[in-house]
Write a structure and sequence with these properties.
Number of domains: 2
Shape: elongated
Strand order of the largest sheet: 3-8-7-4-5-6
CATH class of the largest domain: Alpha Beta
CATH architecture of the largest domain: 3-Layer(aba) Sandwich
Number of helices: 9
Radius of gyration: 21 Å
Largest sheet: 6 strands, mixed
Order of helices and strands: EHEEHEHEHEHEHEEHEHEH
CATH topology of the largest domain: Rossmann fold
């Protein structure tokens, strides 16, 4: 069956040169973007209940933009002035760049990983005398605490924000040829919004092993997977599938 419409379970890209927009132009398909999940901050009272005293930490590990936003939100709510001496360990350049929203970049001690959390750990390991705080969501990847414990550093994980299922009731009678998922939470949201969802001819695209597992456990037929050696990005995987599907008679 040909592909004409795609729903991506993420926010619409804000950059003009997004590969999704190139995909729309090249393959003449309609792509809509919709967050299946969203983030809500927890209160400073809830953070205190986790026995978190911000003054006890000399370094912050930031794995996402959400972590940046909610760390500084909680600091403000607690009336804690983040000292200039605070060290920031950012999982990627994108996170480090976003940090400039809150601090003067050139005047701070900022250490940046390449992309994955595992790539950040060798940098953290060099600073064993620091006391690390890792502000995160309630859906922290299991590998993160495992890797931190292996480093032998003093650290604490605290939930500063939670992942919540979005209301998708307005999509009840809307059909898409392909649904694109990037996390198990997205799959969960699909079924919480539409408990009677039947896949039928809808193609399912998934990114990452944990998403594959979540989709499989729900009995979904996975038609498109990324990353693979041939298609390292979701847009590449989608384009490959669309080319093949749309050339069929």
């Amino acid at each position: 069956m040909k592909v004409k419409t795609i729903l991506v379970s993420q926010p619409e890209p804000t950059v003009e040169n997004s590969p999704y927009f190139d995909l729309i132009d090249r393959q003449k398909v309609k792509i809509d973007f919709r967050c299946f999940i969203h983030v809500e901050g927890v209160s400073s009272k809830e953070v205190r209940a986790q026995k978190v005293d911000l003054s006890k930490y000399s370094a912050i590990i930031l794995t996402s933009r959400n972590a940046v936003d909610h760390f500084f939100r909680i600091a403000k709510e607690m009336r804690f002035t983040v000292p200039d001496s605070m060290k920031y360990f950012c999982q990627s350049e994108a996170v480090a760049y976003y940090l400039q929203k809150y601090v003067v970049y050139r005047k701070r001690k900022i250490y940046v990983g390449k992309r994955t959390f595992a790539e950040l750990t060798p940098i953290i390991k060099k600073y064993k005398t620091e006391t690390f705080l890792l502000p995160s969501s309630d859906k922290l990847k299991p590998e993160v605490p495992k890797l931190m414990n292996e480093l032998g550093v003093t650290w604490k994980k605290a939930t500063f924000f939670t992942t919540v299922v979005s209301d998708l009731s307005d999509l009840k009678d809307v059909y898409y040829d392909i649904l694109v998922f990037f996390s198990p939470s997205g799959i969960k949201s699909l079924y919480e919004n539409f408990p009677d969802f039947e896949q039928n001819d809808t193609r399912i695209a998934v990114f990452g092993n944990t998403t594959v597992k979540a989709a499989t456990e729900r009995g979904l037929r996975i038609d498109i997977k990324a990353p693979t050696p041939e298609t390292p990005s979701m847009t590449m995987a989608l384009e490959k599938y669309i080319k093949e599907a749309n050339k069929r008679k």
